[in-house]
Specification:
heterodimer, A: 100 residues, mainly alpha, 4 helices, 82% helix, B: 248 residues
Chain lengths: 100, 248
Amino acid sequence: MIHFENALTILCMALATYLTRAIGYVALRNRRLSPRAMTVLEAVPGCVLISVIAPSFASKQPADLIALAITLVAAMRLSMFPTVVVGVASAGLLRHFLAS
Amino acid sequence: MSDSETAALDNVGIEPTVKSEVWRGLVASSPVLLGVVPMAMVLGAQAAQKGLSVAEVPLMTGLNFAGGSEFAAVRLWTSPPHLLLIVAMTFLVNSRHLLMGAALAPFIKHLPKRKAFPALFVMTDESWAMGMADARQRASAGISHCFSLPYYLGVSAGVYIVWVIFTTLGAGLGPIMGNAESYGFDMAFPAVFLVLLRGMWNGVRAARPWLVSLAVAALTSVLVPGAWYVPAGAVSGILAAFYWSEPQ
């Protein structure tokens, strides 16, 4: 069952989201960038990624912070899959045993 | 898989390596999916609680396909929904895509628009970051046109299919489930992103803007409600990168 208002809102959301995905590409597709601009652009991915996960670093739960520290160490040494397993397991276990 | 994605795959389906590249992307997406499944179930369950139907949930997650904005939208959902508020929040939460698309542009500008525009439809944090990290690796291996579109589409397909299926499932099963966060699955995202950041590591000097982003985003997330911390952190990091890139 689909309501008209819900469907309309969802379609407008989808349009807004697609615009965010396409605008950056459209704006820069035919530009020749200076070396300085390239240097700045190279920093963008890391800045966006670390901003997305920043709230984890500001958590007030000791269990979450310890789990994050363990995950950080794992991420420096292991490949993707073992790191995820270590992260999920340490967060699950620490939250269980340090639950207040 | 969406029609646009299938179309994009057909367009590149001439070279013999395309199939293996799509497969490589699908396989690479599997650790990410470990985190996507529980988050999708939670979103579906929350959406059902707010009165969205089992048909409307995949409509949202399949057409919008951007998890952060969907969590924000569901939190704000009323009956009938406040269209302008929800669309504005969606644009804000997804504004990081503007930067991501800009960073991706040099890598895909050799592609025809009929491939680039459908490929952008499935750009997520995960597929974008993994596609870029892969491009960097291939570039250092001396491969020209280092961005592999089929690899990126493989990652995207894994995330897309799992996201749409499990949000729908979550909407159906919602009332039965507990809280996924208590099991630790949400730590999958920081884990994935930290490994991706290690792959982008280019020395402490080059990483200084990341620290600025981290500090500003973390502080903003504590002080300001909503999703402002993403644009705040990203923009301040980029400003720092601009400042430090000044020719000496």
